[in-house]
């Protein structure tokens, strides 16, 4: 297995408490702001191109010469597993012949969906990792894709979640969330339709180069953030907040604070159809 693939899998698939037992010093991290295992002390946290960021609407550069992102097999029904890894709830779709992939939209290669997971907060005024004009949505979905030609690169598609009646964002996972409250617990999902997790408008998005938002914070990610959010219900948000982390306390929040933009540019892409 490719070294980075290994890293991604160990990062996203292994329940963290197992890592912790093996190596307390390097395996343990959390979202406690002032704690020694908190975001300031994470491995790799001090790079110059870190994520998430605050998208300053006055400072973005508009681009309208880019084609739309092609979402291949996003309409297919997938099976997969859902795990509480102690930091988030993560869904890993089973390898399928018609596996979801993305390309175009200014991306440098074809990227394949590896997993998706959520970030949330203790109340409705926080939760998303990226901020928009200083404001926060209550949650954010990350669809993590790995490069096929160059697997050292990731393309993460971020979708902001706002509170609404429909709750499309977690409709297929809602029941399973009640069965994975303990860290390390996992169950299966028989019906995942990734397409339902994308907004209707897929032609307007922000794009910038950044990092993983969890240790080791590697600066290998091309970020795509849709400007249009999708709905999550307040009950679904409560189910997320009720999950337990590796210290067996409620996982009230799991978003990294915003990082400095430094010398980067954020583009607002309004793609051609
Ligand atoms: Zn994430």
UniProtKB/TrEMBL annotation:
EC number(s) per entry: 4.2.1.1
Record-level Gene Ontology MF annotations: carbonate dehydratase activity; zinc ion binding
CDD domains, alphabetized: alpha_CA
Catalytic reactions on record: hydrogencarbonate + H(+) = CO2 + H2O
Pfam assignment, any one: Carb_anhydrase
Record flagged with keyword Ribonucleoprotein: no
Record key words, sorted: Lyase, Metal-binding, Zinc
InterPro entries from the UniProt entry: CA_dom, CA_dom_sf, Carbonic_anhydrase_a-class
Gene3D superfamilies noted in UniProt: Alpha carbonic anhydrase (3.10.200.10)
Cofactor(s) in the UniProt record: Zn(2+)
Any GO CC annotation of this UniProt entry: cytoplasm
Top enzyme class: lyase
Record's keyword annotation contains Membrane: no
Transmembrane segments: none
Family to which the UniProt record says this protein belongs: Belongs to the alpha-carbonic anhydrase family.
Name by which UniProt lists this protein: carbonic anhydrase
């Amino acid at each position: 297995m490719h070294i980075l693939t290994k890293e991604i899998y160990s990062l996203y698939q292994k329940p963290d408490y197992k890592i912790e037992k093996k190596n307390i010093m390097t395996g343990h991290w959390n979202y406690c702001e002032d704690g020694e295992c908190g975001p300031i002390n994470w491995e790799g946290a001090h790079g110059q191109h870190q994520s998430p960021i605050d998208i300053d609407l006055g400072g973005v550069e508009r681009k309208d010469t880019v084609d739309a992102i092609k979402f291949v097999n996003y309409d297919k029904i997938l099976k997969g597993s859902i795990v509480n890894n102690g930091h988030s709830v993560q869904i890993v779709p089973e390898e399928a012949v018609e596996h979801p992939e993305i390309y175009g939209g200014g991306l440098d290669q074809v990227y394949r969906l590896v997993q998706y997971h959520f970030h949330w907060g203790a109340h409705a005024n926080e939760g998303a990792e990226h901020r928009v004009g200083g404001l926060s949505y209550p949650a954010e979905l990350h669809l993590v894709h790995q490069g096929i030609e160059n697997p050292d690169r990731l393309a993460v598609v971020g979708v902001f979640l706002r509170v609404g009646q429909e709750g499309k964002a977690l409709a297929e996972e809602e029941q399973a969330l009640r069965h994975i409250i303990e860290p390390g617990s996992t169950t299966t999902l028989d019906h995942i339709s990734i397409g339902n997790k994308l907004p209707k408008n897929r032609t307007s998005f922000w794009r910038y180069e950044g990092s993983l938002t969890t240790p080791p914070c590697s600066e290998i990610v091309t970020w795509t953030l849709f400007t249009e959010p999708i709905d999550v219900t307040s009950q679904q948000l409560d189910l997320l907040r009720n999950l337990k982390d590796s210290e067996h306390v409620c996982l009230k929040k799991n978003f990294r604070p915003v990082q400095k933009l430094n010398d980067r540019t954020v583009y607002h892409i309004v793609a051609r159809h």
